[in-house]
From TrEMBL, chain A:
Keywords: Endoplasmic reticulum, Membrane, Transmembrane, Transmembrane helix
Predominant location: endoplasmic reticulum
One Pfam family this sequence matches: EMC6
TM segment ranges: 43-62, 68-85, 106-125
Membrane topology listed for this record: Multi-pass membrane protein
Annotated GO CC locations: endoplasmic reticulum membrane; mitochondrion
Taxonomic superkingdom: Eukaryota
Compartments in which it is found: Endoplasmic reticulum membrane
GO process terms (BP): mitochondrial respirasome assembly
InterPro entries: EMC6-like, RCAF1
Protein name per the record: Rab5-interacting protein
Family listed: Belongs to the EMC6 family.
Automatic annotation (TrEMBL), chain B:
Membrane topology label: Multi-pass membrane protein
InterPro entries linked: EMC3/TMCO1, TMCO1
Transmembrane helix as UniProt keyword: yes
GO BP annotations listed: endoplasmic reticulum calcium ion homeostasis
Keyword list, A-Z: Calcium, Calcium channel, Calcium transport, Coiled coil, Endoplasmic reticulum, Ion channel, Ion transport, Membrane, Transmembrane, Transmembrane helix, Transport
Pfam families for this protein: EMC3_TMCO1
Coiled coil (UniProt feature): 30-81
Any one annotated GO CC term: endoplasmic reticulum membrane
Name of protein: Calcium load-activated calcium channel
Gene Ontology terms for molecular function: calcium channel activity
Family label: Belongs to the TMCO1 family.
Membrane spanning residue stretches: 6-27, 86-104, 139-159, 180-200
Amino acid sequence: MANHSTKKSSKTTVEDAHAGQSLLSKAFTPEFQWTDKDEFLDVIYWIRQILGLMLGLVWGIIPLKGFIGLALFLLVNVAIVYIYYNSFQKVDEEEYGGASEILKEGLMTSFSSFLVAWIILYSALHSETGS
Amino acid sequence: MFADCILIVFISVCTAFLGEGLTWIMVYRTEKYKKLKAEVEKQSKKLEKQKENESNDRVQKKKLERQEEKLKTNSRDLSLVKMKSMFAIGFAFTALLSMFNSIFDGRVVANLPFTPISFIQGISHRNLPGEDYTHCSFIFLYILCTMSIRQVRSIYIVFEMNKKKERKALNKWVTFIFLRVHKFSHVPFVLLFCYMLNLVW
């Protein structure tokens, strides 16, 4: 019981130390100690959204076409998230229910924002009947 | 074509805001919702506290189980309150969507950089003349926009919920309950989508 309470109090001090930090600064701190699992998943989620939009814009400007564009997006997206949590944050994936849980977080939304950005830019810049 | 795309994005943003506003009027600001939400938060905190000083006492365990059951019923009630109004909103939006659909009828709003697979073609080439499957109809772009906007909006709601709770109480259990409630709130949207697709088919 005593052991339990010391553990708890040390956890609280870590939490207090990070309480003032914004989510953004936490996200860019390498190997940050995530006391709140949800926060980490939120970071992953927002990284995904921004990434989806950016890649959509880039794919639209280049322009990439066809199945290769879709496949490349999924590959880049998953790879960046994997590198982020595995090499940058060094998070124990088992705590979040395995790698697939982290890799799945927000993938669908990111995919739809990617498609919107890609389609709009592509049809505006590169289609014959465009603009 | 570009103007059409921007217009569609604008339409979906507007409808998302409108939907959110209506939900706020019909659900979030009502006394029943506030009371239920407070209750769920209180109970989950209490439960969390009790779980921390877990004991093997049988009576204690039974008490815990009973409380868990109560929490579950409450969160179910909470999602039910949401669901009713969401159905009402859903019907309103279906009417709105069929209006937009008739405005954009037969118009190519964008060119897809890829050829969609056959079962998506039904949506992406809806009401369009010709066999060029890279032509994109209004409904496809609208659905994509709504998907990204709605998810962002609902994650925002979860964010808000998390912030209001005490940090210490934010453990697996609480999150589980909230995610469950949150997940339930998607059911009417899924139903609505199926319904909309059926209608415009």
